[in-house]
Design a protein that fits this description.
Layout: H1 5-29, E1 39-44, H2 51-65, E2 71-76, H3 83-90, E3 98-103, H4 104-112, E4 123-131, E5 133-138, H5 146-155, E6 161-164, H6 170-181, E7 190-193, H7 197-205, E8 214-218, H8 219-227, E9 231-237, E10 262-268, H9 274-287, H10 291-299, E11 303-308, H11 309-329
Parallel strand pairs: 1-2, 1-3, 6-7, 6-8
Antiparallel strand pairs: 3-10, 4-10, 4-11, 5-8, 5-9
């Protein structure tokens, strides 16, 4: 007899929570105890290799290399648009040696999965940077410009397949905003969701019938193929052009309503004291000034967007409402 998915998910979350909490307890019992500058765990609420994992590991490197924290561990807790990781961290109340990477995608996951746990239940630490979306096509695509793509899309909305990340994620939100900009009903959007950027690019480059013709993803997912010419960028969703990429912004093209960006930040479990929150903020503020972190920002073409503490908490509340509205208006919630 098949086990219902909801039961499997709950059991999975329970196991993960138990393992992570046990690891945290063991860590605190070793070495010099609970000093967050001795031992820190950064949770990436996604599988290895994705954007959240990248941020977690770049932070790990910067914190270690510059001696800000002696021992930094990255734990991956994937699933449900980051909400399994969110639920896990919410159950670790009072743990001051844990931070979790979060961002736009998690807000979409909260809305689409009707998550009972919200980001405002956690302790806001810092918003770090923005990561921009690219609309790309294979080098031999007949679409030379975004207008070419829009014209073909209007002619046959249900016949043109667009690929991106998980359903309801940032790529999907951008696709739906693009539909509005192209005067295509978002309900007619034929969206193909892929588990990661690698799977998307394989399908985007395939010549097999029925594969996607246009891809939407973060710059880092497409970067190597854009550099070697296998893909061409039609546009970027960013306030300014991405250095080294010959592609206009949506603002330049007159479509400033396509504006969802993939910001990344860090939150901690709820129930921390102001002193514990302040210490984690201080650690992050030291981290972003390091050469290691600055090199990561440059290498990954991020744009720094630092905001800390309660101001970041206010941003989380406002941004969640904005994402809720986008998903609802576009029929994705």
């Amino acid at each position: 007899m098949a086990v219902p998915r909801v039961i499997r998910t709950v059991v999975g979350v329970t196991i993960v929570v138990g393992l992570v909490i046990a690891a945290g307890i063991n860590a605190n019992r070793s070495g010099s105890g609970t000093d967050v500058r001795t031992k820190l765990t950064v949770i990436a609420p996604a599988a290895p290799g994705g954007g959240w994992d990248l941020v977690a590991r770049e932070a790990q490197q910067a914190l270690r290399a510059d001696g800000i924290v002696n021992s930094v561990t990255v734990n991956n807790i994937p699933g449900a648009g980051g909400t399994i990781g969110l639920t896990t961290v919410a159950q670790m109340e009072g743990e001051a040696s844990i931070m979790m990477v979060t961002g736009t995608v998690m807000m979409g996951g909260i809305t689409r999965n009707d998550s009972p746990t919200k980001l405002d239940e956690l302790t806001p630490i810092a918003r770090l940077a923005q990561d921009f979306e690219v609309i790309a096509v294979p080098k031999n695509s007949p679409f030379q410009t975004l207008d070419d793509f829009f014209a073909a899309w209007r002619e046959n909305p249900r016949g043109l397949s667009i690929g991106g990340g998980s359903a309801g994620g940032i790529d999907h939100m951008v696709a739906a905003q693009l539909a509005r900009a192209a005067k295509v009903d978002p309900a007619d959007l034929k969206y193909a969701a892929y588990a990661g950027g690698g799977e998307l690019t394989i399908n985007l480059l395939s010549t097999a019938p029925g594969t996607v013709e246009v891809g939407i993803s973060g710059y880092n997912d497409f970067r190597d193929l854009l550099i070697n010419g296998s893909l061409r960028a039609l546009a970027v969703v960013a306030p300014e052009r991405i250095e080294g990429l010959d592609a206009p912004t949506m603002i330049e093209l007159g479509h400033d309503g396509v504006d969802v960006v993939n910001w990344r930040g860090l939150v901690a479990p709820g129930g921390l004291t102001k002193e514990q929150q302040a210490e984690l903020i201080a650690i992050v503020e030291e981290m972003v000034k390091t050469e290691s972190w600055q090199a990561a920002v440059e290498r990954n073409r991020w744009q720094e967007w630092l905001l800390t503490g309660d101001e970041f908490g206010e941003f989380l509340t406002t941004e969640q409402k904005r994402i809720d509205k986008i998903l609802t208006d576009l029929g994705l919630a």
